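User: I'm preparing a small set of examples for a lab meeting where we compare how different chains pack in three dimensions. I only have the primary sequence for this one, and I'd like the structure in token form so I can line it up with the others. Please keep the answer compact; I'll paste it straight into my notes.
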Amino acid sequence: MERRVAVVGLGVISPSGNDIKTFWENIKGGVNCITLVDEFPTDDYPSKVIGRVKDFDPLAYGIEKGQARKQSKFILFALAAAAQATAQSGLVSGENIDPMRYGVYIGSGVGGFESIANAVRTLDNEGPRWVSPLFVPTAIANMASGNVAIKHGACGPCCTVLSACSTATHSIGEAYRAIKHGYADAIIAGGSEATEPKLGIAGFGNARTLTHSTDPEKASRPFSADRDGFVLGEGAGVIVLEEYEHAKARGANILAEICGYGNTCDAYNATAPRPDGLTQAAAIKAALDEANYSSEDVLYINAHGTSTKLNDQVETLAFKNALGEDAYKAHISSIKSMMGHGLGAAGGIEAITCILALQEGIVPPTINLDNPAPECDLDYTPNKAVEADLTIAISDSLGFGGHNGCIAFRKYNE
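Assistant: Understood. Below is the structure token output for the 414-residue chain.
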């Protein structure tokens, strides 16, 4: 028998804030949190702006000083976001959740980006004897899930999805399916990413995906006619999913229900989205169909909305293919306009945005949308948040390799 799945905890580390309250106030307020790169001279770099996590103190989230010193930032971000989400959930392994039925699905698009870069520099400059024995366990992408499982005594299914910018969306979707079909009772799910700005900006910039803007206030412009690329970002977004009856039985505070998931591949190009939007639309439609979407629903879409020429055009087409005329009445926005693109973490942070939007009936804005592109002619909530009696929300993600994911949430009513 298929089971209902509730959301019972949220946790975030992001350029827009390192706790849910700060993050949501900035996001619904349309506050730009993108800054100029100031760690190194950027004269020779193709992009000069970044969405950086600021004022992050791992000790504030119960992470021990020794671990904070040794671990990659993507692991620390995941631990911090998971600490917030599990605290809100009230789940304690061995007390109100069977450890063998408690899982972790946290992915990363790259893993220990800065650990890899630093190890290569050490190898080249000082030789193999000086590469840290901790290099591998701090660099490999599964160590976010592994360390969170260790911290929270989660001995059940533990997986790491790696599907570029769709990573966190797929992680949450696969966790949802695992609970729905009886393989676990609760799973800590999401994504985490910490950028290495020199290598990240050089690599993504030379691939012609990053903005050339030197004005951080206007650098990320999803769905705008003058958009010219995304802003490299970072962070972590983690949610706790729990089987509905299990959550009800222990008196959990249910924040929303996750009720749909779609997963497709363009099978087209390594970096460019499929131009007809059909495979992207199939993932969106699968999530909506599973969630029993109807035209009577008031829909919020947290768009992938990267601010690149191809993504925003194709994504708009995908919404139209999936929804038909309903696409024109959907409330849509891209929070990447305010914080940049968190890569493997983006879908987790955007899932949290969907849940908060449903709870408060507020659609966050797409800032810098003063000159909408003619091909992006849907309601992208320009510049200011709007109130709406939302009943359903979806977050879609489109990743390099043609990986498409979409998850659907419903407002919770007892």
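A couple of notes for your slides: The chain has two domains: 5-249, 259-410. The two ends are 21 Å apart (CA to CA).

User: Perfect, thanks.
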